[in-house]
Write a structure and sequence with these properties.
0% strand
């Protein structure tokens, strides 16, 4: 008997791609062949340095996924863009058009 526990995740296809890519990257950089060891290394890295994103799009996508309200998310983003740029930005947010049958 080993001293291990099991944890299961349900992932969307895009999340699975990211997880597999991260595991492959961690295994290549560390030399381990074990997914669980690679996962541990990934977690240690995040705990040590915090989350980081390679692109603005990736960071914005992650932030949007945390949001519970699309309109609130857009408002926060526009407030930040105004602050950074000094521009006076006015936007009208409308509900999406219904899809054609």
């Amino acid at each position: 008997m080993t001293n291990t526990v099991k944890k299961t995740f349900k992932l969307h296809p895009d999340q699975m791609e990211i997880v597999e890519a991260a595991l492959s990257y961690a295994k290549a950089k560390s030399g381990t062949k074990s997914d669980t060891v690679a996962l541990e290394y990934i977690c240690q890295e995040v705990m040590g340095t915090g989350l980081s994103f390679e692109t603005l799009e990736a960071a914005m996508t992650a932030e949007y996924k945390k949001s519970t309200d699309a309109q609130e998310f857009i408002t926060k983003v526009l407030t930040l863009v105004k602050k950074i740029s000094g521009l006076n930005i006015t936007v009208t947010i409308e509900e999406p058009c219904p899809k054609a049958p």
